[in-house]
Every structure is written in structure tokens, then in C-alpha cells.
Amino acid sequence: MDFELTQDQREIQGLARDFARAEIDPNAAAWDRDHAFPRELFGQLAELGLMGTCVPEEYGGAGADFLSYVLVLEELSRADAGVGVTVAVHTSAATLPILAFGTDEQKSRFVPPLARGEQLGAFALTEAEAGSDAGALRTRADSDGDGWTIDGAKQWITNGRYAGTFLFFARTDPQTETARGISAFILDAEHVRVTRDEKKLGLNSSVTNDLVVEGAKVGRDRLLHEENRGFRVAMTTLDGGRIGIAAQALGIAQAAYDVARDYALQRRAFGHRIADFQAIQQKLADMSMEIDAARLLIYRAAWLKQQGRRHTEEGAKAKLFASEMARRQTGEAIQILGGYGYTKEFPVERYYRDAKITEIYEGTSEIQRLVIARSILGLTERSLAVR
Ligand code: CAA
User: Fold this and answer.
1) Model confidence, pTM
2) 180: Cβ below 6 Å to ligand 1?
């Protein structure tokens, strides 16, 4: 077993870290305060190849492996988790599924503009009454000649307002009300109308939108994978996407730890640095241990994925542990900073707000436990597993 990153992985990690320190860190507090989406930043990331880190070079990407992409997400999220989620959804929830399930024609047409960062990608699965129960979605794609007419509304779509390409899920079999009978489509911005910008607790530098599709006519060239087999596309996509969200949570927790550790070494109370007190040492020791544990779970899941091996259970474990750890440990970072931690003078209150969502999107912690339980118990029938 080799725990060392390769030379290539270390280089790409260094590239993302240096860029994040220079271009993201100094602006993150202002973007958070102003709810500003840093559109031009993604052009800069594209110039570095980081909008298509793990996309093969023949499709416009940097040709690195999945673990390199995870390292990039960790570094971006360490500086600004909103930037992290924008890149995560763009890459693992929009670009990679087209690579995995697309025809040669679809891959050559839709992937390069995404991988080169000329367009942002979005993943439109969730609806007002289909969140955890994604298979209950109601958006319809009615058969129409040699294609479909799509009508419906989506909710909480990351990147919705700025995306050029949407991985979009709709029901193609009106006789069904479950996961069977759903298809995946590749839509353009012109098929979609954004109806709302969500106001959120955190991740203020990312956009989250409601959108509608009204009578959009699409041909067979827009169908990704087989008709009525789109739920498999969604689930496979989320298996990988969850590793990316775990890396986002890890980056947030690492940032909180860094601030808390530095503060503890400087702040004095009762005639000593507070790092000299066991109460603070024990908090920092737990933070450091849990960050390490999350990192190991995440790297294992990423390694399995890039070996082409099953990673559903391992990705869910990584996401579940990293997100709950980030919520816990960003709270501990505030505790170490005391009153200062609760103010805008330090970034830890932002980390705390940003961490919470990682327990919710790309599958809540409860859904991750369900996925893990199904895997370890060998349950596959829905009637047995969803209760
Ligand atoms: N890989 C491949 N196929 C899978 C799969 C996987 N991991 N999991 C399930 N499937 C397949 C099943 O084999 C089944 O296929 P068949 O029809 O061929 O038999 C089909 O998918 C349906 O599976 P289930 O019966 O297990 O489906 P279910 O309705 O019981 O749902 C669930 C399972 C795990 C609860 C699922 O609905 C789920 O993951 N829910 C959470 C949704 C979610 O994570 N949403 C995130 C939104 S995107 C987002 O948040 C992005 C963002 O902005 C950051």
C-alpha cells in the first residue's frame, strides 16, 4: 500500500493551492458578504485546465486522474466552498456522465466546451417533491415524432443561472411513478428558463436556482444512455459526485483547523498561549485526527473510482463522514476562537455556514446511511430498503 501522491498529483495539488491562495482567498469574504458569483474566476481556472482536470486531453481536459480532481476540489474549497461546489457540479455531475454514458458524437460535441471551461455544466434532477426520493420526479418528456417534448420544473439547481449545458432528468414512461421510466437528456441553456435565485445560509459565492422547461423539443441526439434508464445515469453520477462533495467538506474543515491552530498558538489567556491548555489541545487533536480519517476515506473512494471499481458504498461513507466531520469541526473552530470566531473578523463562521450543506446535497446523511446499509446488508429491493 502506497500512501504517497504521485509527482503529477502533487503538482496539480500545488497548482490549485497556489491559485486558491492568490486569487480566491483574498476575495472569499467579500463574495460571501455580497453574494457574488465570481464568473471570471472560472475562466482563470479554465486556463489552468482545472475546469476539466480529470477529462481526457482528447476531449479538451487536462487528462489527470480522478484523485487529482479530488485534490483540486479540496484546495478550492479550502479557500471558498462556493467555488468548490461550482467546479464539483460542473465536472462530476455534468461533464463526467456525458463522458461515461455518451455516444462518440455526444462526447465530441458536448464535452470539450465544458472541459475547456467555455461553458458551465449543471445537474437537474431535484424537484420540489422529489429530493431524497429522486425517483418520484414529475418532469415529463413526452414522445413526439422522433424525439420528445419536455415540460417541468426543477429546484435547487447549482450553477443553473450560468450553465450552458444541463444534464436533465425527465419521465419518459408516463405509466411509472418510480425510478423506472426516467431518462437523462443533455439540454442547452436555451431550453431552460431560470425562475428563482435561492437565498442560502452559506455558499454565497455559488448560485442555486429554480428553473422551468416549457415545451422544449429535443431529438434523439439529446438522449443520454438508453430511454427509461436515466436513473442509473443519475445514481452512477452521484456515486462519483459524492466523493467530490466529501472533498469539499474536507477542504472546509482543513481551513477551519488551520485558522484554529494558528489562533491557539498566538492567543494568550491566564498568562499562557491557549494552545498550552489541554482543553484546546484535545480539540485540535480531534480535529486533526478526524480530518485525516476523512481524507483517507476520500482518497480510497477516489482510487477505487479511477480503477473502474465499484465505489458506491465507499463514496457514501466518505461523504457521510467528511460532511458530518466538517460540521462538527467548524463548530469546534469557532469554539477555540471564542467570541472572535462568531464574528466576521475571522472566516470560521463562514466555514461553519458553508459546511452544513455538505450534509444535505448530493444525498443527505440519512440517504448515505441508507446506501451504506443496503450495500452491507445486500438489500436491493426498494420495498425492503426504503422504510
Ligand atoms: N449505480 C448504478 N445504478 C443504481 C445505483 C448505483 N449506485 N443505485 C441504484 N441504481 C439503479 C438500481 O439498480 C435500479 O435499476 P433497475 O431499475 O435497472 O433495477 C434503479 O437505479 C432504481 O434504484 P432503486 O430502486 O434503488 O431506487 P430508489 O428509488 O429506491 O432510490 C436512493 C434510491 C438511493 C434513495 C436514491 O433515490 C437517492 O440517491 N436519493 C438521493 C438523491 C440525491 O442524492 N440527490 C442529489 C441531487 S443533486 C445535487 O445535490 C447536486 C448539487 O447541487 C450539489
Assistant:
1) 0.97
2) yes
